[in-house]
Write a structure and sequence with these properties.
- The structure is a homodimer.
- The first copy, chain A, is an alpha/beta fold.
- Chain A folds into two domains: about 180 residues, Isopropylmalate Dehydrogenase; about 160 residues, Isopropylmalate Dehydrogenase, CATH 3.40.718.10.
- In chain A, about 50% of the residues lie in helices and about 15% in strands.
- Chain A has 15 helices and twelve strands.
- Chain A has a seven-stranded mixed beta sheet with strand order 3-2-1-4-12-11-5, with helices on both faces. Chain A has a five-stranded mixed beta sheet with strand order 6-7-10-8-9, sandwiched between helices.
- In chain A, a hairpin with a 5-residue loop joins strand 11 and strand 12.
- In chain A, helix 1 packs across helix 13.
- The radius of gyration of chain A is 21 Å and the shape is globular.
- Chains A and B meet through helix 8, helix 9, helix 10 and helix 11 of A and helix 8, helix 9, helix 10 and helix 11 of B.
Chain lengths: ~350, ~350
Amino acid sequence: MKIIVDAMGGDNAPASNVKGALAAIREQGVEVILVGRGEEILQVLNEEGMKEPPAGMEIVHASEVVEICDNPATAFREKKDSSLTVGLNLLKDGKGDAFVSAGSTGALLAAATLIVKRIKGIRRAAMAPVVPTGNGGAVLIDCGATAECTPEYLLQFAFMGSYYAERVLGRPEPRVGLLNIGAEPSKGTELQQKTYALLQEAGEQGRIHFTGNVEGKEAVYGAVDVIVSDGYSGNIFLKTMEGTGGFLAKQLKAMFKKNLITKLAALLVSGGIRSFKKILDAGEVGGTAFIGISKPVIKAHGSSDDYAIKNAIRQAAKFAASGIIEDITENVEHMRLPVQAKKEEG
Amino acid sequence: MKIIVDAMGGDNAPASNVKGALAAIREQGVEVILVGRGEEILQVLNEEGMKEPPAGMEIVHASEVVEICDNPATAFREKKDSSLTVGLNLLKDGKGDAFVSAGSTGALLAAATLIVKRIKGIRRAAMAPVVPTGNGGAVLIDCGATAECTPEYLLQFAFMGSYYAERVLGRPEPRVGLLNIGAEPSKGTELQQKTYALLQEAGEQGRIHFTGNVEGKEAVYGAVDVIVSDGYSGNIFLKTMEGTGGFLAKQLKAMFKKNLITKLAALLVSGGIRSFKKILDAGEVGGTAFIGISKPVIKAHGSSDDYAIKNAIRQAAKFAASGIIEDITENVEHMRLPVQAKKEEG
């Protein structure tokens, strides 16, 4: 298994990216191609006491870096020698099995869609993070790649999220819920109402395990393995979850730091606080999978440290080994609306 | 100030409703009309050691109760002698200054809209809870009354939420944010993009203090005083916040209950835990204001205890005294889209 890593993307690049890759090679037995400015990558290796890349690591030089200020839609074209463009071309050409980047989300999505391309028949690629929930995490699909969706997109997200939950999270028969504001099929906007009918049909055909609408609260508590949503609502869900978690963690920290007695209390529950932090920590999960692209692409968090990059690489390897792209390819006919399929055939 | 209270709505009715009303009369100096089954209300009073309603309390008998299984849209018509219908007719007829119910949200919304009516020119009434945020709470408008909205509805929500934040929460020049998935005006769906332009215009005219788009995370942290949203997205935001808070509170409880040592830790930070709980507790805030109706209506949480009912009554009195219905009425012309206003004139 060979993972292509964008050495230059993210707030802590290239140091965290290189060190995360080193740890992944050591611990996970994967090979890594680091793409970026060769001299900067080598300097990090030197600081780690290495004169050259260790076994399992390859460096592919790319002189440019896509920055936050670049236009996400066109950055990969304007900067042809960027780590993003070079890395995704390597993926497209089969030089590696998956691509990991902690750089600009929008630029990565546009570049992956246009260089690596979507799976044939898939209308939109989705961003599918694993969000921390009461059942040990759920796949949220989509969390922002496509703000405005059609029922057909959501049908495709449901199938793709289901395969991901089964193959990558190891959930047999994953429960698929439609993010909504009530249980009844009539709830929500026209989008949710129409999607409900499609998901129900797919459920009745035994293609997915659709459990109905899921409200934000129940989703967090862990009622489903896959939360199906348009990108706008999914992003609201994700950011609200992050915000609430972060806000409460801050309150908690203040509570424990108040005085000597509360600091003693913190010591007494230090184990518990660690697992509490772990629940809130995005680094534990790794990155966000781009599902629907014809090869595995993982977006690591912009603030990723070594540990988060290492986890994103593990996730990329798991994604690549899972066979879900084959699942999607083989079943894509069941994810199409008859009318639109006809239109394309005609 | 006289508040009409639905004695029969909610999980703990009529006991909590009667006891909450008693506390409100005692502590807040308001008068209360309790609407519901006279004998059941009297029984609660008897249990509280009273033979008849105390000064400031009046009982209006209504023999029926709207139940969860009733059709929300028609319940108030089918049950003409329900506490809901009788209570709202009292409000309409000016027998009291505001109405509080912990019963079915849908039935209350439908009944308030059709009996008490919307303010002239207001297209949709909105449900506007005060959500716990880093700045001491923000008005979320709408949280589910209207799943599918037009830019004009959202423009009206922005004005109405702003008046509420100013007059009821006491925020001078309240910051109004549009719930969205990024800062740029181009973010979100067509609804957010069009609404952004309207809110910006209203801001430039000095009618509201529009601070731009606000993401879920920043909204929780307290970036704005008013979070403007369609009912679908607002409900996702609210329920995700509640779910995440509840989920983390559960984790925390488990952490403190683990063994004797962790229980000792809980004792040492008991003050902090209390304020932590207070942040998460919906009862502290009281209820959800229905804004856009021509008289003040407050929906208390279905699980309200005495304390929550008492707080909802306080909130109703504050709403009634605030003058925001007059604010809305006087400024409604600025909340209309020119084209549609023209259409109605013609």
